[in-house]
Amino acid sequence: MNDSILKLIGNTPLVKANTLVKNPKVSLYFKLEGQNPGGSVKDRAAYNMIKSALDRGDINKNTRLIEATSGNTGIALAMIASMFKLDIELVMPENSTVERVQTMRAYGAKVTLTRADGGIEGARDYAEDKVKQGGYFMFNQFSNNDNWKAHYKTTGPEIWEDTEHKITHFVSSMGTTGTIMGTSTFLKEKSKDVQIVGVQPTDEAKIPGIRKWPEAYLPKIFDKNKVDKILEVSEQDAREMTRKLATEEGIFAGMSSGGATAAAVRLCEEIEEGLVVSIICDRGDRYLSSDLFGEN
Length: 296
Hints:
Elements: E1 14-16, E2 26-32, H1 42-56, E3 64-68, H2 72-83, E4 87-93, H3 98-106, E5 110-114, H4 119-133, E6 137-138, H5 145-162, E7 169-173, H6 178-190, E8 195-201, E9 229-233, H7 235-249, H8 255-270, E10 274-280
Parallel strand pairs: 2-10, 3-4, 3-6, 4-5, 7-8, 7-10, 8-9
Antiparallel strand pairs: 1-2
Helix pairs in contact: 1-2, 1-5, 2-3, 5-6, 7-8
EC number: 2.5.1.47
InterPro entries: Cys_synth, Cys_Synth/Cystath_Beta-Synth, CysM, P-phosphate_BS, TrpB-like_PALP, TrpB-like_PALP_sf
GO molecular function: cysteine synthase activity
């Protein structure tokens, strides 16, 4: 028994791909982060950012919090803020799926929608302006070390132990880059031979949760030296693989997970042997109002 929903964050399952990899000497495993109570990998970072800020005295129950998000971080922050009785405003583009907006509001958060054509950059600008005006505290997941440290403390060790130290390649989509930075830092400490593979969209692709940032908005926590290889995926490949994950592997996830899986499968075709772990960062029910799972 657990005395708090927060105790259920982390220790997510690792499951083997059964149909997508043809090379018998290569195994692909999925880290099912949708099994977190808030439904995504962002529960880890959100908890660590809030708990660490409280422990340091950076915030208290009277602090007004604000954060820009494309969705999953906002849901995680809303859930965890509610558990700590904190007031939070979440800022996101108005074209975000209705499921995400409603979930944040269900947890009691205030949600502010910015212009769709401004993207997540516009949401970040709005939140930063509020902080400059005074009266708000922003976690700023893009430059907050507590983001990547969450994965150094939890995601990396879980993967290392669950693969019995046999992991050869780690694949992750890159958004804030917290997941790949923290997991890479831990795994490289255990074995410099583990290859870290980041996933970015091609120039014209729009894949929620994966970004190729303009220089001015590049996350400050990102260190290119912690990524051995970057693979790019198209929007079409991400969409097709997301659907294939559901129909062939029984894994219902979002498009960033499809993008990461497409890159991971490509990687599995390139290497002779190995054990590859790829992050499935959330659940597909967050995208049902979009056209992601429409008729093929």
